[in-house]
Each structure stands twice: as structure tokens, then as C-alpha cells.
Design a protein that fits this description.
6% strand, 3-stranded mixed sheet, 173 residues, mainly alpha, 3 strands
Length: 173
């Protein structure tokens, strides 16, 4: 579904997306040491997987830029509720810009529908938050919107490392 979305985006906007993949040798070392599904065994193992498959490619993707844009919204989690629209991302050495921070999920969908924007069809199958296939599942009615991400872990550990787990309250709060 994600590859289909990428293709639709490329056709609609007549642009070729730049894809950044995990380093093959690092991925071989990870799966050799921890197993192909080792990320299920512990938080440390899952974070190591995210490091190889997501964080390291992300760092290569943002190299040379002064900022990156994220779709983080305050309503998604307690940690995300403390985010600022523009803040220095010391972990990655550039600014993080969150233009949707104040938007509700309903406002996001209203914007998508009004403009007939392409979106991942997994959203129609009860996947409000989409990540790697083995680490993402559909949610059940009444579950938290991010319950499908790393569902086997405690809710406070459900981040990949792109976004800080703990934030400090703004000085003017």
C-alpha cells in the first residue's frame, strides 16, 4: 500500500521521490545477531532495528538540510503534546518543523478530502498510524489511535527514535 501511494504521488506531482534505504550490510549484521524477527524480543532489540531501518537512513536523507518537516500532532501522545511548531532538534542537528501540530485528526482528513490528496489506503483499513509492516497493525474500535504501533510494548516506549521520548515543558507554560 505504501509503495502504491508513492507511485500515485509521483504521477500526481510529476516528481520522482528520493528513496533512502537501510544499509544492507548493517541490516545483515542486525538480523544475523538478533534474528529476522528479533525486534519482538525486547525494547532494546526493537530500537536497534529502528536504528538500522529508520534512524540511520533518515540521517542520510536529511544530511545537508537546515530543517525537517514532521506530521506530529499534539493529540497523538503526551510527549508530542509538548512539542513546539519550530524547535531545534539537537539529536539531528537541525530544526524540526511541525506545521500540523495544532490540527486534529478530523482537520487532517478534512484537508485531504477537500483537496482530493493521495493517501495510504491502509488508513481505510483501520491503520491510523503507519510504520514498518511487522511493527504496525490495525486498531480495534475504541483503541488509542497509536495502539497499532509496537503493540507488544508499553505505551510510553512506542517511538522509533526520530522524535524524543521525553520533552521539557515550554518555559512560558
Amino acid at each position: 500500500e505504501t509503495y502504491e501511494l508513492m507511485e500515485r504521488l509521483q504521477w500526481r506531482y510529476r516528481r520522482t521521490l528520493r528513496l533512502v534505504h537501510p544499509d544492507a550490510a548493517a541490516l545483515e549484521r542486525l538480523t544475523g545477531a538478533r534474528g529476522v524477527n528479533g525486534f519482538y524480543h525486547s525494547l532494546d532489540a526493537r530500537l536497534a532495528c529502528c536504528q538500522v531501518r529508520k534512524i540511520e537512513p533518515f540521517k542520510r536523507a536529511i544530511a545537508g538540510f537546515g530543517a525537517w518537516v514532521t506530521g506530529v500532532r499534539r493529540e497523538q501522545s503526551a510527549a508530542r503534546s509538548l512539542a513546539q511548531p519550530i524547535e531545534w532538534d539537537a539529536q539531528h542537528g537541525l530544526y524540526r518543523v511541525s506545521p500540523l501540530l495544532e490540527w486534529s485528526e478530523a482537520e487532517v482528513w478534512q484537508y485531504i478530502r477537500r483537496r482530493k490528496l493521495p493517501y495510504n489506503v491502509l488508513h481505510d483499513k483501520q491503520f491510523p498510524s503507519i510504520g514498518c509492516a511487522p511493527c504496525t497493525r490495525a486498531i480495534q474500535p475504541g483503541e488509542n489511535r497509536r495502539a497499532g504501533r509496537w503493540w507488544w510494548e508499553q505505551s510510553e516506549s512506542r517511538e522509533c527514535g526520530l522524535h524524543p521520548r521525553a520533552r521539557h515543558a515550554p518555559a512560558d507554560a
